[in-house]
């Protein structure tokens, strides 16, 4: 039949059916070819809804389904709910075919809850979350009541899109319909609230659940971990283990991540022991989490043991090990491990090169860092991002190559961010380049006008130049704009409990009088050892007090005093600090490790410092 002879149907309800008929008329030879006689769709005579459904259930691919659908349309069969559901399920096997599924959905005159759920589920499964929500809205407009199967899927889409208002509205609908006692619906609510950073609401739902399964516990623990409420994550993990709820690989990975961020080595070791005792599979995810935990707790030897014991490793595993070596001051070992990675034909990614550049930065391996930056693009076709350029600026700046660092900044294909200028400014402070310092701080204030750290950096420069009147202006500006600096905070794990110390606090819950007395003793020991306190500058990475008497109350020193009081002689004292350790604390802790004959490990926001016998693993290069 000639193409010009085709007559199109114009009825909205019949548009899709007409389109299918026209397709058959125009392209009968190419679109509808009856399959071979041995096929499951070999005979269409006497086709009825039940037989059609049976044939659809036996379809093995999308093309067979289309042939059956064409026959259904040309035979005038109505769209029953079961056949429509099956057509949608087969069509939604690929996101490119969802338009087809949508057309089927529109053809059904009286859709029910089951059909609407299928459409919502199909879109959500393909990460078409906006479409899933639209399908629910249409369902609501047609007064089709949702059921237990509707809300878990819908809440998943709300979570992925961070639509808190819609999620809360859905929660209200669940309560109104009396569907809130379903474990799957309640678990989806916990997941949605966690994804939208409403942890208290998530915990309220969790606590009120009449029934919880392992997925419910995992959702809450993972939510705490992803939102950096690590202590609560570990507390919930302990309760889960005590109640003998089924702990899976997902659970222990979240617990290990919490231990890693807190630097809670003892609790991390307990989780590792739990994994062994309960025969939880040491797969690539659990193994990588263990490597990361031990590395971030400063026990790089244990990281290497886990790494060697793993039978299967992926890129993330190698990245965790290389990064761990880098942050613990083993730059040469990190470079060597990178070579092994290539020998085993593991393809590096951008995170690998970021880790290896950090290793070069911590060890001052300038030539090696330049080589890796070149290889990244030429050999592995990986385009450097802002983090890679930041590492290179830091590496060049620390080495005193400030002009080269500035040249790199000007040649970057990406606009420099605050981290780039902060790295340059730190190098200028070390090497006394005031001209570049002013350029860097100007750009910082432009990019982050409300960040307190930048104003402290500006004050540092003015103090160095003895411009006290301008220092006062900076402090006044901060007060007027209510800009505050992040206070220094240090934590220490003692007897499986994490204690946090923040500058200026009186540390409720611990024996402050004894700590204060210990700090006085530590201060006297420093003077006897010839230590001269660094009070000449107010730095962004130290607390705000300027006098020698206040320096002893820096959070890491308070944590060390607590550790000396509460741990046995010879025990390693492990500290985690949220800011970069200051010069005075660094030189003081070196002396503490010698005076008290204690190994002290401090993890600041940049790297690890392993103090022993009066020296530091960073070799005063940080």
Automatic annotation (TrEMBL):
<dbReference type="InterPro" id="IPR032867">
    <property type="entry name" value="DYW_dom"/>
</dbReference>
<dbReference type="InterPro" id="IPR011990">
    <property type="entry name" value="TPR-like_helical_dom_sf"/>
</dbReference>
<dbReference type="Pfam" id="PF01535">
    <property type="entry name" value="PPR"/>
</dbReference>
<dbReference type="InterPro" id="IPR002885">
    <property type="entry name" value="PPR_rpt"/>
</dbReference>
<protein>
    <recommendedName>
        <fullName>DYW domain-containing protein</fullName>
    </recommendedName>
</protein>
<dbReference type="InterPro" id="IPR046960">
    <property type="entry name" value="PPR_At4g14850-like_plant"/>
</dbReference>
<feature type="repeat" description="PPR">
    <location>
        <begin position="213"/>
        <end position="247"/>
    </location>
</feature>
<feature type="repeat" description="PPR">
    <location>
        <begin position="314"/>
        <end position="348"/>
    </location>
</feature>
<dbReference type="Pfam" id="PF13041">
    <property type="entry name" value="PPR_2"/>
</dbReference>
<dbReference type="GO" id="GO:0009451">
    <property type="term" value="P:RNA modification"/>
</dbReference>
<dbReference type="GO" id="GO:0003723">
    <property type="term" value="F:RNA binding"/>
</dbReference>
<keyword id="KW-0677">Repeat</keyword>
<dbReference type="Pfam" id="PF14432">
    <property type="entry name" value="DYW_deaminase"/>
</dbReference>
<feature type="domain" description="DYW">
    <location>
        <begin position="530"/>
        <end position="622"/>
    </location>
</feature>
<feature type="repeat" description="PPR">
    <location>
        <begin position="283"/>
        <end position="313"/>
    </location>
</feature>
<dbReference type="GO" id="GO:0008270">
    <property type="term" value="F:zinc ion binding"/>
</dbReference>
<dbReference type="Pfam" id="PF20431">
    <property type="entry name" value="E_motif"/>
</dbReference>
<dbReference type="InterPro" id="IPR046848">
    <property type="entry name" value="E_motif"/>
</dbReference>
